[in-house]
From TrEMBL, chains A, B, C, D:
It is found in: Membrane. This is Glycerol channel. GO terms for cellular component: plasma membrane. GO terms for molecular function: glycerol channel activity; water channel activity. InterPro entries: Aquaporin-like, MIP, MIP/Aquaporin. NCBIfam families: MIP. The chain crosses the membrane at residues 102-124, 144-165, 186-206, 246-265, 277-301, 328-348. Signal peptide: none annotated.
Length: 391, 391, 391, 391
């Protein structure tokens, strides 16, 4: 913040402020026209200067391509990095354009590798007596650890994009927190691809163990006795009714969104304002969802963590049962997380959030759904686009 | 907060102080006439000015309603939020009035959803061989995780009210830390309701699993073989005498209050002065109570976590055994946590705390119980109310 | 630190510095003539001023009594606390005199209550099929949690004394880090008492469960089949030779001291300079010692955690087997932790520590053992005592 | 560091900056000519002045010896320490010369003691019914804890050398982050020795338990039924093909390097800029690798953790099967971690890192492999060495 304030801040103080700037609100300038709260970013008031600095970072052709993709024209790149001859390289330019999608892709891939990896290890080694301890390489709790720390480490890796890692959470940030809707498709695609690749790597890693466990080259889906499809995506318990399937995913997703919005609420006094604690809190949140709501349907709560691996497992030969199992259960973890997150975000904004949100407008924001209102918003958007170049 | 102190704080210090100010002691102005220590707040020296700012936040009619409810007239709301037209909406006004009760309600609800959810998952899936690992979806330790992180995440959610989450802890803050007694009833009600709703959601989520486990629509209470009432509230082990039941809850509650007071003691050099560590420490504390004192009576240590779910389970059809089981055990987790917390707080103030506390007055504060003293305190209170408007 | 520097630090910066002062090095003034590193304190360079402030805090009669006990004349009490009429109360004066012993007492008591409590719960409920999960209320790992978080929470509680919680660690701080030897006896006594009382509370809490488990009023000691003495203190595995018993405690204690000295080394670049992380690191360290070196002899590594509960169990009727079991094993966890900690501290100072330590003097400090050298040190000590009043 | 900059930094900022400076970037001056990112160090902008201070710390003869060993001439030692007569002692001079090797040695030794210790305890006590809980002293998850916290505590201990603790990670820092190649050999040697000594101590500690478990003085290697060689180094599961063995180590190592580079990337907005969180993140990372990729080959991912203990076990009499087991598996955890880490680092630099890295040069840095380029780099290096004395 104090970068422009040189004369006021002589000596070492300069670097301190600058350091703090970087640590908490680097992305800020990029979103200065919104109040979106990417998961890895705190809001501040001092971002004006970065609009001046940013053009030095992102070339104008890259800016155009990024705008077409729905991203902010300026990529979130450290000022010291990627300047000079290095940034002229073709690959560097591509990477600048695709910075956020790459970050989401790898964030989700890391998350799914740890998550599906933990299921694979526990499920395939069930009851192995040669393990230290004599009873398999892990228990159900290892899976809570795997998904919890997978999310935590994914958040660290994907810091440059806001680290949503979940299309439903991206969606709710567009809906409630003014993240531009235009960014949703490219984030969505990156997250879906990340889940596909991450689960594919787990499959590749455990292929000989799966052969050994299934007793050959066949691949089976629950409720088959030696089914291994449950490593990659979720299948419901047999006794759970369709309504309970839906509700179980719905409530877990609502809890997820409610707590994430609390953790990201700059007005909530219980939450550390610095983002340093957020990944650890998410570890506990995901661990908790797995410990408390992970039995009936396997707590998918994320289309990128369920649909993508399901597609991958279909591609490598698990057969059409991956779609038909559980009474065509597959659509529930696609739809329910969106609805659950929307409901959870609604509850938080209704009862606790006091900042700008559609819920905090007349008629709880339902006006926004009326055609006349939508037309007006569209005109306003176009006008702003003309004035400021991009939105 | 120091924003108004511009001339005194030139240069970058301004923003740093402001940032730190926000992070740790936002609620302060609201309690500037007390030395109460809400669980999510550190004490500072700079709160005088916020009484000037607050009137802009809370309308005078809302102030009156809040006073009637026993709350501080000014709601703890971020200065940047809820100004302008937004705060004129009727719902926003209601939310401003009920800010702390809403926070406590959701904090307790989140806590109970994770806590009871973990018991439900572990208990209902006991020994299921289809689980990864072949032995259920979690073990006893998952329940320690569930309650521990439920409290942690509840503290994050309920930051605006001080995040007591437990009537006994609110009570001891009134008794020992000058939290105004008038606030106790509305906090109490919100906490009790939160426990009721949170456990109700767990019941709704696991209803088909409970049917499957009990083998039909019946609902049974321990020590029945397939009892599921233990998901929601605590039942003692059969061999534990009434005295041991009482003592087990008493000692766990005393430990809880003793350590919480230590963690909130600004004079204790072992404790980080920032509140960032507090929720994590509570995770460890609750995990520890469950690991070490969770067997005999199930470590209720909180009437909102035991009585409310018990009532809920009675309402959904578990029958009158929820009250009669264990020799009318139900009253122990209602009474014992209060007495235990009072004793734990007494010990801490007696041996370690050096700040203002009734224990640190002549006759260990017992004078306060004398009628003559109580009359004098009442007169003093009324005088202060006249002078300052509210207390 | 900047308290005396008012003119240089106007406005809110003042409070910040002061706040940091409090958080990290409040105890410093008390040790300004030493370089002792209490476990909850970082070293700084700016402690001169507190010698001026302290006399306002501690009355001269209390100073004398504290000197007699071997404590620093000025008690570590927050400046804002315990002034005015409050500090005139007799009990407040006693508490001021016994501040550090009280802190150590409660720190050890909290530690032992969680630690022994976790053993009690796991051992007594072994295999209980009515538990959620169907297999007892916890497993061996719960005990790692119990001791780990017991130490962590004990450190928080005992911040005012330096939170050694272990006579062997106090001893090594006297030996290697210039903690005055005169303080050792009163710390030692407080720690021993804390272990006695803490384990007594655990016994009182589990008395009906112990009756149920042992099958009556008898009390037995390992290797009896239903022995419960192992709840309170450690007994070795039957196959472990005396040498291995000794070595197992020795190596665990050496590891403990080595890592604690690393975590407290202000020159070690891997360690956060703030003390906020220290209790969490100790949680991991103790958890690790229990997971890795906890089988053969039960990782006592602390006379206050082993001898005191053993005495308590002897007092409540476990019989003389508590002393004779394991071939009079009881003396090993009394002696070995001291020797192990001395060796661990020696290794750290020899290979890594570069600050003032006897090891960093000619002949590795062995000169200090020579009578002539000791006489000289004694004369030097008396001279300093005359000049500065106290040491 | 800013202590000498008094005039530029008046008032309390001085002490604050100095404190922060110390905490995060003490090592910086030593690497001011590189952009290497030792695991325990953040990059800053203010390191020029320390080249002036350092000569006071390290004598010129020590500087020469250090240069010969490939280390930076100035040892990373706190300015306040090791001055005056103390630093004249012969042992102090040796310690100054070997500072980083000592740190790496002890870091790896601590890591292996906890890691191998946890395997020893779990494996040797498998199914012991006398344990509290009735089923051994730990389960597979204890091993995840052991290695995770072993790495965490090792990082704390080895802060002065950068705390690589793994030759493959040192190698990748040379390759991608400009750590001078000359330092690799001495780090490598120290790490290998640390693993040897650490595992030797575990063997010494558990020798009587191993005798008891194996049923005599023999020592056996998996897949023997009572094999104990798996305590020290890794052996693959019998059904895993050679390709899967390689791939399992490769993918785990790539994940390790990818996430470590993310955690150390100053341009990644998801990562706390302070290093305080790094050891905790590594705990979660290693725990995750063990939970998710620890079954097939035992997640060696580190030659110092696998080869050295294997050599130790060979030396104490486990026989030549330690080399031949699993179809001469021993070379896989020697080679695969290097290749995996190189690949993981390559992916991170290709997709996310924007700072100076060979990947961010034309032809993805492959030019560096051409002889003509290498000759030029050599000349450049010699020129710089002449100008600046050392590199």
């Amino acid at each position: 913040m104090a970068v422009t304030g040189g004369p006021m801040a002589p000596g070492p103080s300069l670097s301190r402020d600058w350091a703090d700037d970087r640590s908490d609100n680097h992305l800020n300038g990029l979103n200065s026209n919104t109040s979106a709260t990417p998961l890895t970013q705190a809001r501040t008031e001092h971002s004006a200067h970065s609009t001046e600095l940013s053009p030095h970072r992102t070339s104008s052709s890259a800016q155009k391509t990024r705008s077409v993709l729905g991203l902010h024209p300026n990529a979130p790149i450290d000022e010291e990095h990627d300047h000079g001859p290095r940034s002229e390289l073709m690959w560097s330019r591509i990477r600048t354009v695709l910075r956020e999608p790459f970050a989401e892709f790898w964030g989700v891939a890391i998350m799914v590798m740890f998550g599906d990896g933990s299921v694979a290890q526990v499920l395939l080694s069930t009851g192995e007596t040669t393990a230290p301890g004599g009873n398999g390489f892990g228990a159900y709790q290892s899976i809570n650890w795997g998904w919890g720390l997978g999310v935590m480490l994914g958040l660290y890796v994907a810091g440059d994009s806001g680290a949503y890692l979940n299309p439903a959470i991206t969606f709710c940030n567009c809906l409630y927190r003014q993240l531009p809707w235009r960014r949703f498709p490219v984030y969505f695609l990156a997250q879906i691809l990340g889940g596909f690749v991450g689960s594919g790597i787990v499959y590749a890693n455990y292929i000989s163990a799966i052969d050994w466990f299934e007793g050959g080259k066949m691949r089976t889906v629950p409720p088959a006795k030696k089914a291994t499809a449950g490593i990659f995506c979720t299948y419901p318990q047999p006794f759970v009714t369709k309504a309970s399937q839906f509700f179980s995913e719905f409530i877990a997703s609502a809890l997820l969104m409610f707590v994430v919005f609390a953790l990201k609420d700059p007005s909530n006094n219980g939450v550390p304002k610095s983002d340093k604690w957020f990944p650890l809190c998410l570890f506990f949140l995901i661990f908790g969802l797995g410990s408390c709501f992970g039995w009936e349907t396997g707590y998918a709560i994320n289309i990128a963590r369920d649909f993508s691996p399901r597609l991958m497992s279909y591609a490598v030969g698990y057969g059409s049962e991956v779609w038909t199992a559980g009474g065509y259960y597959f659509w529930i973890p696609m739809v329910s997380p969106f609805l659950g997150c929307i409901f959870g975000g609604f509850l938080y904004d209704l009862f606790i959030y006091t900042g700008p949100s559609p819920i905090n407008t007349p008629w709880l924001g339902l006006k926004h759904l009326m055609p006349s209102y939508a037309r007006r918003a569209r005109r306003e958007h176009i006008r702003r686009e003309k004035e400021e170049g991009v939105v």
